[in-house]
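so im writing up the methods section and need the Phosphotriesterase-family protein record in one place, dumping it here so i stop losing it
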Amino acid sequence: MIRTVLGDIAPEELGVCDSHDHLFFRSELLPGQELDDVAAAEAELRAFGAAGGQALVQWTPAGLGRRRDALAELSRATGVAVVAATGLHQAAHYSPDRLGGLVDRLTEISVGDLTSGIRAGMIKVAGQFHHLDAHAERVMTAAAQAHHETGAPIGVHLELGTAPLEVLDLLCDKHGVPPNRVILGHLNRFPEQRVHRAAAEAGAFLAFDGPSRANHATDWRLFDVLTALVESGHGGQVLLGGDTTTAAARASTGGGPGIPYLLTTLRPRLSRELGEEAVTSMFVANPARAFSVPWRR
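--- predicted struct ---
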């Protein structure tokens, strides 16, 4: 089952999915750009639904203003299924006085978020640029423990798309998380096809998110790396997302392009390039498998 903020659903109920985005997000690194406006979030989600979107996975972890109560209200109001996250981001996103208490109890917090109240449906963790620091190793160890207790999938923020194989070494080889329960995010930001193929061959899901950001080498290289993965037989492991992290990036603020861009602009271009069957798999079948797990609790 897939665990949404309104309850568990069968994989075939998920539909067209934005596999990595944010309706609410507050970070010490982005002062003044908080995503905390419920009306703006609703406008964004309704626009996504009007473009054909049926589900959205919010990767905002614990301590960053994820607002699970509001997510449930928005999902109910718009008809778009929403999957929430637990876990922790990089240390720099938190105030130091709060971080220690979260890290020390992370397994307990994550299991609680995944199994009670308005439940999360995934665990979010993060690496650093080309390496895993002590914070990342500690957080990923706690995430692996929470996975083993619950079955939850683990989504990984790769800093500028780097160190995916190091993440798999830690989560899978050292801590026994099955590779198909790991989602590697931001791979579009480091368009090294050999690394992508190695991660795919290991069995992980590969998330390409944050389209329209030219400074992250996204759209103009995205087609090349996705074509390579499809041609090498790994199209069934690709996920796509918008990763809207600031108020200025929302379509509803007039800045944009926001969450709807994923379906209004990127999807038609990808369909022309890769074919509708491959792209439908990336938006429907693949997320249905990536976020569906045999929950243990």
